[in-house]
Design a protein that fits this description.
heterodimer; A: alpha+beta; four-stranded antiparallel beta sheet; two-stranded antiparallel ribbon; globular; B: alpha+beta; Gyrase A, domain 2; Alpha-Beta Plaits; six-stranded antiparallel beta sheet; about 20% helix
Chain lengths: ~110, ~190
């Protein structure tokens, strides 16, 4: 069972209070972009074993979207942070580096 | 004008705790910048209580203010006063981006009273109702069985539950099942 702390209301929310929103930090490619970019934006997703960044929504609680950094193999949660950002915050990256030296996820790490 | 009727017309059940539909209750959803001075002043003027902190409830007499999300409050007042309060907020916040809606007849409220209340709610919601973890003044929006609900405490052993009116019968049924006298667990 996954428990994530909502960065907006500070609640330790049970997984059943949340809605998963897939991979975080996607760059949107809309009208006018190349077919390859649009295809990747729509369909190409990472499926890493280990460190992963995801979007979650505190659906049954405050209703806000947030991001979570967690491990897909141990279910360890490294941290959660508000969604108004294009990259993971430094303190969370530092924490992951401390526990998983050499980690990388897309362009981060 | 038709007569206002609450969803389950004060249905009751006595078990581990007394579960009762709370009857008509004025409820107003207010969305806006809760940090804005104008919003805080308007709420204080209309309801007599300050905007509470995150995950808290403030009340005075028949008036109450529940924190629902970083930009949303649930305001409580007598059922007959809700329309007037919406108008009052609309006037006070005319220059402020906001939304105030009378949702009194779109929600249902329940009261769960008795020493078994913590256990009844603990069976239905994924949160810790242990004394010290959940106390009067706190509010949580959460999942109750399969539907969304907000839960807070009026006082020792008295819980309030708000859900969508269309789900009132389901919530009442879930509360009744959780309060079945033969289903005591004795956790809290």
């Amino acid at each position: 069972m996954l428990i994530l702390t909502c960065p907006y209301c500070g609640v330790d929310a049970d997984e059943t209070e949340l809605t998963p929103g897939g991979e975080a930090h996607l760059t949107r490619h809309g009208p006018g972009s190349s077919d390859d970019d649009f295809h990747d934006y729509l369909f190409a997703r990472d499926n890493p074993r280990g460190v992963h960044f995801e979007r979650w929504r505190h659906t049954y609680g405050c209703g806000k979207w947030f991001h979570a950094a967690r491990s897909t193999d141990t279910l360890e949660v490294f941290g959660t942070y508000p969604a108004q950002t294009t990259e993971p915050p430094k303190d969370i990256c530092d924490k992951i580096s401390g526990e998983r030296p050499g980690w990388s996820w897309r362009i981060f790490g | 004008m038709s007569e206002a009727v609450s969803s389950l017309q004060s249905a009751e059940f006595e078990g581990l705790a007394r579960v009762a539909e709370a009857g008509l209750q004025g409820m107003i959803t207010l969305r806006g910048d809760l940090g804005a001075r104008a919003v805080r002043a308007a709420v204080k003027a209309a309801f007599g209580v300050d905007v509470p902190d995150v995950n808290n409830v403030a009340s005075a007499g028949h008036m109450g203010v529940c924190w629902m999300s970083p930009d949303e409050l649930l305001l409580l007042c007598p059922h007959g006063e809700a329309e007037a309060k919406v108008a009052e907020l609309g006037t006070a916040l005319a220059k402020q981006h906001h939304l105030a809606v009378n949702v009194s007849d779109a929600r249902a409220m329940f009261q769960v009273k008795g020493s078994g209340g913590r256990e009844v709610l603990g069976k239905l919601c994924p949160l810790d109702f242990a004394p010290g973890k959940f106390e009067p003044g706190q509010i949580r929006r959460t999942r109750m069985a399969q539907v969304p609900a907000a839960v807070w405490m009026d006082g020792v052993d008295t819980f309030r539950v708000v859900c969508f009116r269309s789900m009132a019968r389901y919530v009442f049924g879930a509360l009744k099942a959780a309060a079945d006298p033969a289903s005591g667990v004795g956790v809290y």
